[in-house]
Specification:
Structural class of chain A: alpha+beta
Largest interface: A-B, 40 and 45 residues
Strand content of chain B: 5-15%
Structural class of chain B: alpha/beta
Radius of gyration of chain B: 28 Å
Number of helices of chain B: 18
Distance between the termini of chain B: 38 Å
Strand content of chain A: 15-25%
CATH superfamily of the largest domain in chain B: Alpha/Beta hydrolase fold, catalytic domain
Oligomer: heterodimer
CATH architecture of chain A: 2-Layer Sandwich
Number of strands of chain A: 10
Strand order of the largest sheet of chain A: 5-6-7-8-4-1-10
CATH superfamily of chain A: Sirohaem synthase, central domain
CATH class of the largest domain in chain B: Alpha Beta
Helix content of chain B: 40-55%
Number of strands of chain B: 12
Chain lengths: 226, 604
């Protein structure tokens, strides 16, 4: 009798749990994770490589604007480039989570410039104008310290993050990161951009100055070597 | 006062000698078997020359094994003698201390006590022997015999099946490439022994050179048989006059190139031979594919020229995988990648290299914006390659990243992305520096079940030591900073290498290490600093540490965190650079940022 009751109870509990889990899954299923542009993976699946290329171009221009505005808060002279910034970065491990993303189906973007304030190093003094700017914009701010370098991070809330670091060695790099974007093929997108790129980046430039991003109709000038 | 005798260095040479002698003896049967197969349908004076060369090779191999075994016995004897001498020296020191104590008693007790004390000390505590134990001289002697390869004076004709001859040459090369690793190990262990055990006199030291000569003779045999096979093929079958075979069998390579391709050369000798050759880039492009394949694997040749040869070989492998699979001797290698795996791996390596080319063009000056393929070939039946972001010939700051178990060249895409991220992070720390980061998949990494064994690390360590020394020798000077990174089993392999390198490395960084053996602890490594890290969420590394020591537990190893920090994320598992989740070299990982700082500045 006792065993029968336990068995019935177990059956009911299992049914309730199963129902709960299934309804939870169904509810979760209607909320597909969206990327830094607010798109789901299914929506990006409808896009051609050409459309992804054009969207990427828009993201690139936006990234440069964010960078320029932040640069001008601390230094309106020349900044060193941290390398070319036109190719998609590696997906799967972005500055923000995107459930289901990996190195093949997602990418992110970043651009880095660096300058060295004159005079003795004062990390707090260097960071303060940027903290004030991030605060004015209403962005979330986080302070970090790693191996002696002081950083401030801003999250814009619409897919972008900005990191400004006052390093122990007196160099101050500024990096703008995108959060992850979905793509149908990260390698194909990277190759499409690289193939059309003039691959000329300055060592130094003023804020807001950067080479033109290629157009889809530009000729392929950098085919793969093998 | 001690003696100049490092037990670990002697043990290392003993272990190496035992293993290599055993391998040499074990390779006799397979060699005999392929030679027998080649001799089917092979007749005339050339078959007799071939058989004579085979017999010489076989006898030399056994003589070499015996010379190594004899060396091992001598080393065991001197180890015992060193123990005895150390004990004697300790006894003498202790006795002198006791005698000094007795002197104090004598001084305080006065003359009446002296005879009693003298009598009791001579009976109960006699002075230990003052005669030092002399070590027996060690003799490491072996010389290879040269082999005759022309027989034209016989005036007759010879016949053979060219396919059988080619198979012999391919299998012999595969076997010899493994023996080349053994030569590197013996040579390195011998050098370390000589420098750390100067207490032991050495009577003869021709063994390493003789070992190299034996391999050079084997390489000449394989090339000779290839040329003979080519002559039979060109003739369309049937027999050929011995005089015609004499002409065909004579090497067509110029002497300088023959010298460069001698498989027994050290990286320094390769660098000297390369400099003497005076080849241009166009000359390398014009070489036949078989020569380019040999050239691609030469440590000591500048990276720019290895890149040309390596890309030519990879390009041919993508176009015609069957041909390259045969050319590399893989159909005849036990445990080698299958043809299907070969096809997939060369395409994946090509994609990884193309990705490196793309990413490298965005590298900031003064680093050179380019990628290099420095080596593409086979080791122990696996495809091996190394891809550089930057310029290995000129960079002032060089990093070599060694991956762990189950890594193969098809993961090069992931490795070069990780390398690119490291370079970008390191640049922020020292932007005056020109960086080059090498993703080195230059050994047959073990499968998961092979991790407890040291065998793959031993073979891979010899390859890596040669590669690292080759960086110095090809440039003619050291980079300002040279860092070696070892992930998981790659750290075990890196430690094996750094116990052998001729040139000192600035830093070794292990992450998620499966451990060091007793003879690869930091005091035995040719490195200034050893750093180690492991994440709390990495539950895999410990499983591989059976019989090995976690480097974090060793003295002289500085540790750093791979967990969450104010500036970075914790690793979520054991991976270097996973598709999803956080690996040790993922961009936002605490470990990656700290490793990049060590690369740039030499400290965390």
């Amino acid at each position: 009798m006792m065993n029968t009751m336990q068995s019935t109870l177990r059956t009911i509990t299992t049914a309730v749990l199963t129902l709960g889990l299934l309804s939870g899954c169904a509810a979760g299923g209607t909320q597909m994770p969206t990327d830094a542009a607010g798109l789901t993976q299914d929506e990006v699946a409808e896009m051609s490589l050409h459309q992804e290329f054009d969207a990427y171009r828009d993201h690139y221009e936006h990234m440069q604007q964010l960078l320029r505005n932040a640069q001008l808060q601390v230094h309106d002279g020349e900044w060193e480039w941290g390398g070319g910034d036109d190719l998609p970065g590696i997906g799967g491990d972005g500055v923000a989570p995107l459930p289901g993303s990996d190195t093949k189906n997602s990418y992110d973007m970043s651009t880095t410039r660096l300058w060295s304030p004159p005079g003795p190093t004062d990390q707090q003094r260097d960071l303060q104008p940027m903290i004030d700017y991030f605060t004015e914009q209403g962005w979330d701010i986080e302070r970090r310290t790693i191996t002696g370098d002081e950083e401030v991070w801003a999250t814009t809330g619409n897919g972008w993050q900005i990191q400004y670091t006052a390093q122990e060695n007196g160099d101050n790099p500024l990096t703008v990161y995108s959060e992850p974007f979905w793509t149908n093929d990260a390698n194909a997108l990277s190759t499409a951009i690289y193939g059309r790129s003039t691959v000329k980046f300055p060592d130094r430039s003023l804020p807001g100055v950067y080479p033109d991003f290629p157009q889809w109709d530009d000729p392929i000038i950098n085919p793969p070597k093998i | 006062m001690g003696i100049e005798f490092d037990d670990a260095a002697a043990s290392r040479l003993i272990d190496c000698g035992v293993e290599v002698a055993m391998t040499l003896r074990a390779s006799g049967a397979p060699r005999q078997s392929i030679a027998d197969a080649a001799l089917l349908d092979f007749d005339g004076a050339y078959s007799r020359l071939f058989e004579a060369a085979r017999v010489t090779e076989s006898q030399d191999r056994i003589r070499l094994a015996k010379a190594l075994e004899s060396l091992v016995e001598q080393l065991r004897t001197v180890q015992r003698q060193a123990d005895a001498e150390r004990k004697r020296l300790a006894d003498v020191t202790a006795w002198r201390q006791r005698e000094a104590d007795r002197d104090l008693v004598r001084a305080s007790g006065g003359l009446p006590m002296q005879p009693v004390l003298d009598w009791s000390s001579s009976v109960f505590d006699p002075e230990p022997s003052g005669t030092p134990q002399r070590p027996s001289p060690v003799s490491a002697v072996f010389s290879a015999r040269s082999r005759q390869r022309t027989g034209g004076r016989s005036g007759g004709r010879s016949g053979a099946d060219p396919a059988r001859l080619r198979k012999f040459a391919a299998v012999a090369r595969v076997q010899d490439s493994s023996t080349e690793q053994d030569l590197v190990r013996v040579r390195n262990a011998w050098t370390v022994f000589r420098s750390r055990c100067s207490w032991v006199p050495v009577d003869g030291a021709s063994l390493p050179g003789g070992f190299a000569d034996y391999l050079a003779e084997n390489a000449d045999d394989a090339s000779w048989i290839d040329r003979i096979a080519g002559a039979f093929s060109a003739a369309g079958g049937g027999s050929l006059a011995n005089a015609a075979l004499d002409v065909a069998g004579t090497s067509k390579l110029p002497l300088g190139l023959q010298r460069l391709l001698d498989p027994s050369l050290t990286p320094a000798e390769v660098a000297a031979a390369w400099a003497a050759l005076g080849f241009t880039d166009a000359d390398i492009r014009a070489l036949p594919l078989t020569t380019q394949l040999q050239f691609a694997g030469l440590d000591g040749v500048p990276a720019a020229q290895r890149d040309i040869a390596s890309r030519a070989v990879l390009s041919a492998a993508v176009r015609d995988p069957e041909r390259l699979y045969r050319l590399m001797g893989l159909p005849y290698t036990y445990g080698a990648v299958s043809l299907d795996e070969f096809r997939e791996q060369v395409v994946a390596l090509r994609d990884g290299l193309n990705r490196a080319d793309e990413l490298a063009t965005r590298v900031q000056a003064p680093s050179v914006a380019g990628a290099q393929l420095v080596g593409f070939g086979v080791s122990d039946g696996s495809l091996v390659a190394a891809v550089v972001i930057g310029d290995l010939d000129t960079a002032s700051n060089v990093t070599v990243n060694v991956p762990g178990a189950t890594s193969a060249v098809d993961s090069m895409d992931e490795k070069v992305r990780a390398a690119n991220g490291l370079l970008a992070t390191a640049w922020k720390q020292r932007r005056s520096e020109s960086f080059a980061v090498v993703s080195w998949i230059g050994y047959r990494a073990p499968g998961a079940v092979e991790v407890p064994s040291q065998a793959r690390a031993t073979a891979g360590g010899a390859n890596l030591a040669s590669f690292l020394d080759g960086i110095h020798d090809s440039r003619g000077s050291a980079p300002r900073s040279l860092t070696v990174l070892g992930h998981s089993y790659g750290s075990t392999t890196a430690a094996e290498a750094l116990a052998q390198t001729r040139y000192r490395v600035d830093s070794l960084v292990t992450y998620g290490s499966v451990g060091f053996t007793d003879t690869t602890t930091p005091d035995h490594l040719n490195v200034d600093h050893v750093y180690a890290t492991e994440g709390s969420a990495d539950h895999t590394a410990i499983l591989g540490r059976i019989g090995r020591t976690d480097p974090r537990d060793l003295p002289d190893v500085d540790t750093f965190s791979a967990d969450d920090s104010a500036g970075g994320s914790a690793v979520t598992g054991h991976d270097m650079f996973p598709d999803s989740g956080v690996g040790y070299l993922s961009r936002d990982a605490t470990a990656q940022q700290t490793i990049a700082k060590i690369i740039a500045t030499g400290k965390p």
